[in-house]
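Quick illustration for those who missed Monday's session on complexes.
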Amino acid sequence: MHFSCVVVILLVSSLSNALPSPHEDTAPTYTLPAAASTDVAEASKQLDQLAKFAQQQARSLLKQEHNGEKPGKGKCTLENVAIRREWGSLSPKERIAYTDAVRCFQKKQAKTPASLVPGARSRYDDWIGTHINQTVFIHYSGTFLTWHRFFTWHYEQALRNECGYTGYQPYWNWALTAVTGLEESPLLDGSDTSMGSNGEFVPGQGTVIFGGPGLPEILLPSGTGGGCVTSGPFKDMTVNLGPLALGLANGSTIGLGDGLGYNPRCLKRDLTTWINRNFANASSVARVIIKPKDIYDFQMTMQGYPGSGDLGIHGGGHYSMGGDPARDAFVSPGDPLFYLHHAMIDRVWWTWQLLDNEKRTGAEGISGTGTFLDTPPSANTTLDTVIDLGFAAGPPQTVRDLLSTTAGPFCYIYL
Ligand SMILES: [Cu+2]
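Prediction with copper (II) ion bound:
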């Protein structure tokens, strides 16, 4: 296969005398791929190049903002910027600190009034309730990316502020688990330093239907689990809310009204490496970062164009977890892996933004309306659209402030 390349030169010449390290001073010349390779090994090399490029761009932006050469709040600097890392690159101690904080959060008292989410029993449930109540406005809509960025960031902050966690939000790199297989990865091998195991194997499960309101159905094989998670830190976890639109292995969906009632049950998983490998491998990730030239195409490629038969990397990650609540678009934050998945979604967006940062963190970085595939029709999302996470966390912010991970209230980058 033949691939052409473009050479992108990072212009940091105006900065060169302000930079601390001679190594970082040199304006690097990057050869960035013009098309994502369909060869997975080649595509993972492309992802490495893109990751290095994004790192360099992000650090150079931080320097510019710090030196007052670029308007920014100037509060986020190279010294205080948080660095979010891949799960497997954390030390065992760091991983346990993270899962301990999540388990602590699941024991803290809910803030959501019972009149709004009667089934909420913990702070962790506040987040699920907020997601359930807003699901139809925050997927295939103009706020999909900013909403989930804000949600994941506040979750990270809550773990730090309410449960003494001192690290940052780790992410799940699907390109890695597509290679190792989910059950064999440090993320899901069921050890004490993982995010928990597969569910207990339930034989004879059928086909799972992926869909959603207004979406054509995609048939998926069931995975290698199906029952309650058997080992690791979330073995005894209780899921309190939902289901609302849970895809079952027999091809049907099940829901209990608005999904907001109290319905305690175990955390179920049905790890499906086939889905990970087909929809969220290195080639899929590289394609989402390299191909789209505008935010509309980026969002649609990431979530899958309806009718294309493609789950996108977003659905690919969600559905490869399988089980309950991961196969329920409304209740999905009920599996703690949700936040690592959405940190990776955010990282892919962050990388794509940094390829043309000014444009992609401004008005041209927004596309869509306030409803799922604009059904029913609603107003376009703009810089002034407000995102409110309800009782999970506050205060509300405008989309304007959520487009950059370093220039607004956020101060983080990805490694
Ligand atoms: Cu969501």
